[in-house]
TrEMBL record:
Gene3D superfamilies: C2 domain, Sec63 N-terminal domain-like domain. The keyword Nucleus does not apply. Residues 44-405 form the SEC63 domain. This is SEC63 domain-containing protein. Residues 407-428 are annotated as: Disordered. Keywords: Chaperone, Endoplasmic reticulum, Membrane, Transmembrane, Transmembrane helix. Pfam families: Sec63 (PF02889). One of its GO terms (cellular component) is Sec62/Sec63 complex. GO terms for molecular function: protein transmembrane transporter activity; RNA binding. The chain crosses the membrane at residues 16-34. It is a multi-pass membrane protein. It comes from Psilocybe cyanescens. Residues 416-428 have a biased composition (Acidic residues).
């Protein structure tokens, strides 16, 4: 295969220009492009954010950080994540900031203070991002097209930034900021204030506004009550609400347990799996009623269940695979989010007494199994922890369950005598001969001091047997003496013996 080049390139009179072009491309443009990409990548962390943003997260987040402090830490990153050329102020922007200050009050000033620089000045990019974020959380209308576009850009950056912030919190095993960051995902997805009440969360449903919640507050407790209330009135909004609830994710913990592969008990410092079985279904859905089984069928079902769990634990998957018939597009109802939203859940194992995170999310089953691997505590005892299931899309759809872990010492293995200890030595072997001599020596020593010489002679003979090579069967009569020895042997008598 050849390449057809223009005639003027290969002509001798144009050689100098061709060489100059090659020199510019390969000596200037290409190194500049590679260097730009190289040094640009060095400014990014593995989470895909600016290294200075990650440093700001590390310094700002604290063990007792509230969700407002998390928002302030998030706003700090936009000094480097939001290009300075895109930040601009306008009359509408100033009006939005005044409205936010009126609605949020002191907490708005707290967030601004957290996002300030050391000189107590709020960078313009941070101010711009925080105003647009709170305008989204409060569902304030943004009319300016350029400002709306910038708000969408800021919102679409939040998952990446929150993920990096979450990694900082989890690395330090801090529970309170970890849960606050996870919940902020849902508030941003549904455009709800971070202090939304139980009834205000009903506005996640379509066509339900804040003023519509007040008349329903006395009769409704959850979203299914809102649907029933609208259907009783033949309200046309009930169709949209029903369609949204079909894509809603109500999570239920079927079971949660600790497992160690191949072991019945959990020993110190062992590799433990937290096995959580979840059922995620639309609100108001009741699980199918299990059929009654006989004793044999129940035993078989339990055995199949255990085999399925063991197979899943031995696999490399973090979540149990579902058949294609039980999977769907997974697009959630989130009309205020700029784009499609696929819901997911976090599984957190934590010790709420010390506010610490302990771990760092079949075809015939109507639930799905998940596992988290971690190393168990080095000491024995009973540990009472809690499992948190938090949604990143649906506000209020979180459940907790207490769980206990008992760490026990490994069972004591009884010392079994070895084959050498059980079997009698052959008399023709060195071990057999030594056993005979040892018995004779012990007997003569036990007879008193007068037989000490006999015992000493027996020891000399035993030594000669070992040194002489091939062993011959010898029978020594009681009291007999064998004096064939040539190598001195040290022998210590008992302390109270007589020489």
């Amino acid at each position: 295969m050849g390449i057809a080049l223009p005639k003027w390139i290969i002509e001798g009179k144009n050689r100098i220009w061709v060489l100059a072009a090659y020199g510019l491309v390969f000596g200037g443009a290409l190194p500049a492009l590679i260097g730009r990409r190289w040094f640009g990548s060095r400014q990014k962390t593995k989470d895909g954010i600016n290294a200075q943003s990650a440093a700001a997260f590390f310094k700002t987040i604290k063990e007792e950080s509230s969700i407002e402090e998390v928002v302030g830490a998030l706003g700090m990153a936009y000094k480097w994540e939001l290009p300075a050329g895109k930040t601009k102020s306008s009359a509408e922007f100033d009006a939005l900031e005044r409205t936010i200050k009126e609605k949020v009050g002191a907490k708005w000033m707290e967030v601004r203070k957290i996002a300030q620089d050391y000189d107590e000045e709020l960078h313009n990019s941070r101010r711009q991002a925080l105003v647009l974020l709170y305008a989204h959380l409060l569902r304030l209308e943004v009319k300016d097209a350029g400002l709306k576009k910038q708000q969408n850009e800021v919102l679409l950056q939040t998952p990446l930034l929150l993920n990096a912030l979450l990694n900082v919190s989890v690395a330090r095993t801090w529970l309170l900021p970890t849960l606050a960051i996870m919940r902020l995902y849902g508030y941003l997805a549904q455009a709800l204030p971070t202090n939304a009440s139980q009834h205000l969360r009903l506005t996640q449903l379509p066509c339900i506004k804040q003023e519509d919640v007040a008349p329903l507050a006395t009769r409704t407790k959850d979203m299914t009550d809102v649907l029933h209330s609208l259907e009783e009135k033949d309200d046309p909004r009930s169709k949209d609400v029903k369609k949204a609830l079909e894509k809603w994710g109500h999570v239920e913990i079927v079971s949660a347990s600790f497992k160690v592969i191949g072991e019945r008990i959990v020993t110190p410092s062992s590799i433990i799996y937290l096995l959580v079985k979840l059922r995620i279904s639309p609100p108001g859905t009741t699980p199918s009623t299990p059929t009654e089984l006989t004793v044999d069928e129940t035993k078989k079902a339990v055995q199949v269940e255990e085999e399925t769990d063991e197979k899943f634990l031995a696999s490399r998957l973090d979540a149990e695979e579902l058949p294609s018939s039980k999977t769907n597009g997974g697009v959630a109802h989130a009309p205020f989010w700029p784009g499609t939203r696929k819901p997911s859940w976090w599984i957190v194992l934590a010790d709420d007494k010390s506010d610490r995170v302990v771990s760092q999310p079949g075809a015939d089953r109507d639930y799905r199994a998940y596992k988290i691997q971690f190393q168990g505590p080095p000491n024995t005892g009973l540990f009472t922890w809690k499992v948190y299931i938090v949604s990143d899309t649906f506000v209020g759809e979180a459940v907790t369950s207490e769980i206990s872990l008992r760490i026990e010492d490994p069972p004591a293995v009884e010392d079994q005598p070895s084959d050498d200890e059980n079997s009698e030595p052959d008399e023709d072997s060195i071990a057999g001969q030594m056993a005979v001599w040892e018995a004779r020596v012990r007997a003569e020593l036990g007879a008193g001091t007068r037989n000490a010489a006999i015992a000493l002679s027996l020891l000399w003979t035993a030594f000669d047997i070992i040194a002489s090579g091939p062993i011959k069967r010898k029978t020594i009569p009681r009291g007999g003496i064998l004096t064939d020895h040539s190598v001195p042997l040290q022998f210590d008598f008992p302390p109270n013996g007589h020489h």
